[in-house]
């Protein structure tokens, strides 16, 4: 933590690129924007290179919003490439101006609300099953990525939010650019920080993860580098150069891939207005045990200092779903002591609770207000954090029913990446950060 604070100081010369080596989302476009080709295999294209394969998320009209079909196809492709001795490493990128704006929440919204569907209501089972399929496909792919045996490069050029971050950050390398916009904005739509976010956010420096999860605030490319969410940075105009370089190399050695990325990478630092320049104040406010205490702390600092960041943070905390705030805070805190697969299994339970209206209608109300009708005036239920009971939060973390199966991940087939903690101690903390995301997953490390 001290290295992180020192690196932000002017003139210290610390290379932020490696502070943490390897430590969803809103699509606001209408269904009318979809094209006939927007289905099945067309949603993920494949490019073949000398010793690598590139998967291209291909729904540019809706900012590459993630679908069930995308998750299923990516699983099939990655399993095939992992078993293919002629494929040394994998690249993932998006088409158009986004990498991936997160899960296709508009489709989920219409599935849930069609014919006033309520869980266990008439004609509802099939629609809820479709929603389950979506989360299952997405979370399973995230686990496959996080335990992938081959080097993985994600090119995060453009919007990278929610599920978009989930399907990229668990990989070996993440390239941020001047066009990268990262966020986990689930509390704004009455949901929880999912798609593995409770794992990777909980391992960010200090309490930055809590701040990002609760407020949904954005980070740019340089801030992703400083916090460890990205491993490399370069200007978007130079992306063709790095893609050409990656297309030429013949290797399955991550150090060789890294060297190629290093050749084009740039050293960048957060500017003076960055939230990372306020890391001590952020930690002071967001280290509290409860949402109420966090809000009180921010409000106190805003009143005392009149600081613009405190005022805007307080405003955001009072705008988002109160239930989502409490659920997301607990999720991040639990994620700090869980492995990736444990976080994904828990998040799957939470996602099903979030969409079925058994506890609250906040998810559908949030999507309606911010994405569908866009009146930006959601009516949250409960309307304030004081009205969110412990029982409501506890239920959010419970199975839908006694007979509801949990998410099944191939942990036995990929067991080496969730256990074998003794292999980590010799090289996890390289240059003040994690040497690889798989190392972090193996170690079950709780803090930096």
Automatic annotation (TrEMBL):
Gene3D superfamilies: 2-enoyl-CoA Hydratase, Chain A, domain 1. The keyword Electron transport does not apply. InterPro entries: ClpP/crotonase-like_dom_sf, ECH_dom, HIBYL-CoA-H. Pathway: Amino-acid degradation; L-valine degradation. Residues 53-397 form the Enoyl-CoA hydratase/isomerase domain. One of its GO terms (molecular function) is 3-hydroxyisobutyryl-CoA hydrolase activity. GO terms for biological process: L-valine catabolic process. It catalyses: 3-hydroxy-2-methylpropanoyl-CoA + H2O = 3-hydroxy-2-methylpropanoate + CoA + H(+). CDD domains: crotonase-like. Hydrolyzes 3-hydroxyisobutyryl-CoA (HIBYL-CoA), a saline catabolite. Has high activity toward isobutyryl-CoA. Could be an isobutyryl-CoA dehydrogenase that functions in valine catabolism. This is 3-hydroxyisobutyryl-CoA hydrolase.
């Amino acid at each position: 933590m001290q290295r992180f604070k020192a690196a932000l100081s002017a003139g210290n010369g610390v290379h932020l690129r490696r502070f943490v080596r390897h430590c969803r989302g809103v699509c606001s476009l209408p269904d009318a924007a979809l094209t006939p080709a927007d289905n099945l295999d067309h949603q993920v294209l494949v490019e073949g290179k000398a010793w690598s394969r590139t998967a291209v998320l291909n729904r540019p009209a809706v900012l590459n919003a993630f679908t069930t079909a995308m998750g299923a196809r990516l699983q099939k492709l990655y399993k095939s490439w992992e078993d293919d001795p002629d494929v040394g490493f994998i690249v993932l990128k998006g088409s158009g101006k986004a990498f991936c704006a997160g899960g296709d929440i508009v489709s989920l919204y219409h599935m849930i609300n069609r014919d006033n569907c309520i869980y266990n209501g008439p004609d509802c089972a099939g629609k809820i099953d479709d929603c389950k399929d979506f989360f299952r496909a997405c979370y399973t792919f995230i686990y496959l990525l996080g335990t992938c045996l081959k080097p993985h490069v994600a090119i995060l050029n453009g919007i990278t939010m929610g599920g978009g971050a989930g399907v990229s950050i668990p990989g070996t390398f993440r390239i941020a650019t001047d066009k990268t916009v990262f966020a986990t904005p689930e509390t704004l739509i009455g949901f929880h920080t999912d798609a593995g976010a409770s794992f990777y956010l909980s391992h960010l420096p200090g309490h930055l993860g809590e701040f990002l999860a609760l407020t949904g605030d954005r980070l740019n490319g340089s801030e992703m580098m400083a916090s460890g969410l990205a491993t490399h940075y370069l200007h978007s105009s130079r992306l063709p150069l790095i893609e050409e370089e990656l297309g030429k190399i013949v290797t399955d050695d991550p150090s060789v891939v890294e060297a190629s990325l290093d050749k084009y990478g740039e050293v960048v630092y957060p500017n003076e207005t960055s939230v990372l320049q306020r890391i001590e104040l952020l930690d002071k406010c967001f280290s509290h045990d409860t949402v109420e205490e966090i809000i009180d702390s921010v409000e106190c600092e805003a009143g005392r200092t009149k600081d613009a960041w405190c005022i805007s943070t307080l405003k955001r905390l009072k705008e988002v779903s109160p239930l989502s705030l409490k659920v997301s805070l607990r999720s991040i805190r639990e994620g700090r002591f869980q492995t990736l697969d444990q976080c994904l299994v828990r998040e799957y339970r939470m996602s099903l609770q979030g969409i079925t209206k058994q506890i609250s209608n906040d998810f559908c109300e949030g999507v309606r207000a911010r994405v569908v009708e866009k009146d930006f005036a959601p009516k949250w239920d409960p309307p304030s954090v004081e009205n969110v009971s412990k029982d409501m939060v506890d239920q959010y973390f419970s199975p839908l029913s006694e007979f509801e199966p949990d998410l099944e991940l191939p942990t036995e087939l990929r067991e080496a990446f969730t256990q074998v903690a003794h292999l980590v101690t010799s090289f996890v903390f390289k240059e003040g950060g994690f040497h690889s995301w798989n190392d972090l997953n193996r170690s079950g490390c709780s803090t930096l």
